[in-house]
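Batch job 17 of 40 flagged for manual review because the log was empty.
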Amino acid sequence: MKAQRTPPTDPFELGAQNRFYDAMSSIQKDVRRGNQAEAELGALALYLWNPTAAWNKILNASTEETIDPLTILAVDVLHRQHEEFGEKADKGVRARLAMLAAGLIANAPKDRTADEMLHLTDFCDILAKRDQLDRWYRDLGVGPDIDRLLVEGVASPELKEKYLRLINRDFVLDLHTSGGLIKGRRRNTVKGETHWDTDASFCANRTPAYEAWREKVYDPIRGWAMGLLRKAEAHRDARGEEMSWAGTPQKKPAEEDADRR
């Protein structure tokens, strides 16, 4: 039987360890839950490995998780400043812009109505003083490590352990991540879609309009669609099929093939 993958020992080897999507998921889940310090730490770790990927995730979250115009504008301004500084600028200063952007979205009131409409149709030092940043990191328990990371690009074992705990949290490992797929949370499966509805898409600090949308529109339609999905899953089981990692039906492998997976 194939051995289980071990977690990466260095959070900045995300690509080599196949944790790239888990890392992006961690940022977005903390944004949804209003976890400012954790969202910023996740943004920093991903930024130091791949700045473009970090900004792509942050910019996407700025219009997926909130409709607050000031937040959306502020994130855009921070990204523009990052691009204007250029690669010759201090990497710590540029990284901090991405971190601030993630923190702003975490603190914004949440409204995912537009994104959930798409899901329903598819499925059926700039804005904060440095002492504030230091306080957030101190509350997270990683303050001294952050400065060393920004200056030297070196993370202590303690910081690495804290970061790995962030990307290994159960609500992070949804149907978009390798960790979620290992847990059987695949697209168009009851297990994967239920985890998305109950844990992965959960938002704190919802706007009243978004609360009403969920209650009157999203939840009833989603519940109806989940009923159809349960019937389809029963029919697939009867035919000896399962969902692939991509979310399409395929024949279940023989036992020896399943062991090799």
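Reviewer: the log was empty due to a logging misconfiguration, but the result itself is present. Residues 1-9, 124-129, 256-261 have pLDDT under 50 and may be disordered. Unflagging and moving on to job 18.
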